[in-house]
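protein under study:
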Amino acid sequence: MSLHMSFAGQPLNQAPALVLLHGWGMHSEIWLPLCEHLKEEFALILIDLPGHGRSTALPEECSLNALVGQVHAGLQQAGVTQAVWLGWSLGGVVAMAYAQAYRENVTSLITLCTSPCFVARTDWAAGMDADTFTQFSDAFKAMPQKTLQRFAMLQVQGSGTAKQDLKQLKKLINSVTEPDYAALSKVLEILEGDYRELYATLDQPGFVTHLLCHLDTLAPAAIAEYLHSQTHTRVAVLDEQSHVPMLSASELLAKRIRDCLK
């Protein structure tokens, strides 16, 4: 397995390290607009999650813990020990699980547009309908490229910059010439999980901040009430933004990240 990792901003030994994890179906280049606003302050570490982008293969057992293990191995090899973590969507769940497993390596953690439960359950209404998720998963197996384009539309839905954001997302999707659709299908199963217990365990004062977006349909701002109920958890909502604020409002997002780390 080869984990693709790239670096931007300051040298590792001269600035705080910031690990950036993207979401399902995407790759690390989605962070480049945000990196322009953070490159003077941080040593930026951009990772393609296993099975995504230029990271080649998944572990035989495709699980959240397996993804975390592969990311950890790649960071250890690169000499990254302590860092701030920023995870978007699925990347936020991976970052949370990483912090649970390797707490000493994470100085603070920010999730962006991440839900502890992306799919609705009998006791959790703030998620995609389970039947709709199953239909999406089946459609991806049958028509992966077309379904990825559809998913891009869901991510920008409702935003005043939707047309521009969608154009950028499609360009990013098409920049990977040979996507591993089978791997992406397996990782989609991880996105279906219920991670509320994981969220409840990371409750050290000031350690985690959850950033949500007002117009997000995948990790709706309505979950803020639940997140506020978690001990010591900080929550903020970005107004007028959809699921991709790193594209639509990268300067605003950079400011919020700085505020989270004060």
About this structure: DSSP finds eleven helices and seven strands in the chain. The two ends are 37 Å apart (CA to CA). The longest strand covers residues 106-112. The chain has one domain: 5-260.
